[in-house]
Amino acid sequence: MSATCEKAAEEVTRGLGFDCHDVSPVVSVHNPFGLEHWTMPVLELVVISGAVFALVHAVRRYRAGDPINLALWFASLVYLFVTEPPLYFPEWFGLDQQYGFIFAHNVFSVQFMWDRLPLYIVAFYPAISAVGYEVVRALGIFQHRGALVGAVAVAFVCQVFYEIFDMVGPQLRWWAWYDGNDKVNHPALAAVPMNSMLLFASASMGALAFLVVRIVGSRDRSGESRRGWSLTWRVLAAGVLTPVTMGLFGIPSGIFGGETPNITAQAWVLGIELGLVWLAGGWILATHVRRRAAYVVEPLSWFARIYPPVYLAGMAVAWLGALPAFLGATDGITEDGTPIGSGWYTIACFAGAFAVLAVLHTGRARSSPRSTEAGSEDPAPVSS
Length: 384
Fold this sequence. Notes:
Layout: H1 7-16, E1 27-29, H2 39-63, H3 68-88, E2 103-105, E3 110-112, E4 117-118, H4 119-139, H5 141-168, E5 175-177, E6 188-189, E7 192-193, H6 194-216, H7 228-248, H8 251-254, H9 263-291, H10 302-327, H11 343-361
Antiparallel strand pairs: 1-3, 2-5, 3-4, 6-7
Helix pairs in contact: 2-3, 2-4, 2-10, 3-4, 3-6, 3-7, 4-5, 4-6, 4-10, 5-6, 5-9, 5-10, 5-11, 6-7, 6-9, 10-11
């Protein structure tokens, strides 16, 4: 048995259509038109282009004097490389007894790390964190209501955008969860572990945004924009601390864990926490709509204007591709043997995402002249 392909990993990867014993340890490249499902290159295009777009936007804001977008982009990669290897190879980090094997990605066009880490996943972290932060920043929530409220809003925005992707992935064989892992992968909402829904889709993104805003800030004590080593160590600190902060949200359900976890109790706890994310996010958006007449509206960047709708369109294409098999599934399993996500939760997330964009794009004309400069990248100070 390979050190990178134990029994559970072998079972999951063969179900995805490849053998984890026959992989490249560093990098492998594959024909994007020969992947397992036609939606996979579409997904790669949407996510990787989003990460590049987010980087271009972040550099423009950095040059204009605000380093937070750029810090968030790189901090998300630090968070990725701290978090993902233990998820793929828990036995390397002494976590096999605590967490066990959790999941495996399918083979995409470019793969790293024994074909466990697709390039699009590397891009997904900065892309989705940029969507959450930039939408909330453009709404003026960070500036007018501070880092904590802004971070909660980011957690909500990322929940609704992320879970549209999360709910369709297993059915289309983008990845597969190991169903035999009761410690992490259960309870689940349809095909998606509720731990993933809370901790990765919301808690981590909110924590990352909060840490970057608080640790980096837009200015140092002299009033200058942070640069060089002063910025670098703060980026590293935010990325490394994010998994620690995220873990705090797993404590309530973890109380009912152990060798024989109480899945029902955990489902209730995680469900309540997810409900609080929705309630808090909805409250922030609703109160923002009532108060925004008194706010100086942030300029709407080209990234905030273009990429979130493009992302939703890409996910809609994926869901349209999945819909026939989804509707024909029996007991949550398609004819191809893949598990389906929750249709009702996906509809709620689409509705939540459209509501976020509606709030983002309305109520701007009545504010100061600054709000008419829709393409402006001039930074505004962030309240922390």
